[in-house]
Records
---
Amino acid sequence: MEKKHEFIHILMDKARGTKYYKKNVRLSAKDAFLQTEKEFRRLNTIVNKNKVSELTIANSIYKKLRGQINDSEIDAFAKNHFAAAFYSLLDIKQKMIDEGIFKHTGIKKYGFLINELIFDLVIFANHIGQKTEPNYRLLNSWKATTEDSKWHFLGTHQLLYYSIYNDKRLDNKFSFIISPVILRQTIELKMNRIVGLGDILDNNGEKIFTKHNFIFDFVRKNKSLFEFDFDITIIQKIFEFCNESVHKGIMPYFWQMFYAMKFCDKLFYDPNFKKAASVYSAIKIKDFSLVKSKLETELKSLFPSPKYDIEIFWIKPEAQILKN
């Protein structure tokens, strides 16, 4: 059975450099790109009769939709995000043309960007497509985000090592200045995701932020509910060290960041990792329902009703769940 918009699946598969699920696919990577571009252009013209200005895009795509939202706000949000995505795809195409690689070679080179862009615009494409075709679906898949924090860590690693030892992407000194900043953000992201904590909103739909050490304190107070295959207290020390660098501009000693990366390795990489669906086993939650309940109680005591009346958005935890 042929997939809906099969050319997009072919493009994404060829962009990843993997073997497409059907044998003897005759559609080239370039043709798949052009057919994908054609479909996006069709969707864009449903809601944007003229080219959307960069000022309009800038004023829209950084706006957060909160509180009571009407249909016209959602439509404007979707159409401007889609326009920005479509123009970005055309920019990638032009980049490949300028480099003389608008073919399979270039599509593989920019494959990660192409796939990220397509996955990100699915929700907007579906909203627009359903205006003329109620059952419209661009793709029946989505972007996996459970490993995002690992890629943040990998980016920190590349920032530090590549700038010092390899191709000097950044000045050595600058890489040392910025690497603690990135690592701090990465650890904070990971700690929130370990316990499945997404956004916290108040009764006005505004995002609420906890103190930087909130999750560390929560884990310490509820340590009987967790198992770590590494020393979490060392991770917190590294986090606090990075936090000092962020707020006070302290330059780390040469060896401090390299040891920080070594000590943090198990926080982000599963030692038993074998395949994409592998459960992260270096961190175990013994009873996730209880962790979730205790975390919710603590957050509501920090941000009590009726002043806040918080709403908590949960995500899939980046940990092995022993009991749900």
Note: The chain has a mean pLDDT of 84.
---
Amino acid sequence: MSKIAVFGGSFDPVHKSHIQLVEFALKSWKFKKVIFVIAYAPPHKSKQYASIDDRVAMLDLAAEGLAQIEISLYEALKKEVIYSYQTLDYFQSLYPKDEIYMIMGSDSLLELPAWKNIDYLASRYKFMVVKRPRVKIKKDTKYLDRCVFAQNETEDISSTEVRQMIKEDSKKAELFLDEKVYSYIVKRRLYK
């Protein structure tokens, strides 16, 4: 049985920490592939800033050179809120002989109890968790038994902060983005 990782998010924009997470997943657990799933409207966020087409283009640029990567518009094309359990069920139906994992940062692990149908989700799937700086996981954290942890820690970057830097014309944003992604954002005048 092979393992497939699903990594959902807005990727608005995709930044270096997102790519580090995927690199850790491919290296550490030998996933057959990692599927980026671009959210149309994540349940925990109120707004998207770049179009779906722009987010796909930025993901293509950021993931260039990474083998075993796929970008899915499953959620984006639905044009409605899709919950994680629905997305993982969808990919399990596509790959019935494979084990499906969800990639997340340790900050998301702490938010799991609030997710829709989390008991169902945790009973069927495992979570590949990458440590985020300043996030403490306790031994009694719920669903810990459904997690595998990466040994590495990702950089502390958020898309919200990157968008704010771009809006303020700060060159600092360039440090957190792939060079090609940064050029794309500048050329398309995104997040201004």
Note: The beta strands are 3-9, 33-38, 69-72, 99-105, 126-131, 147-153.
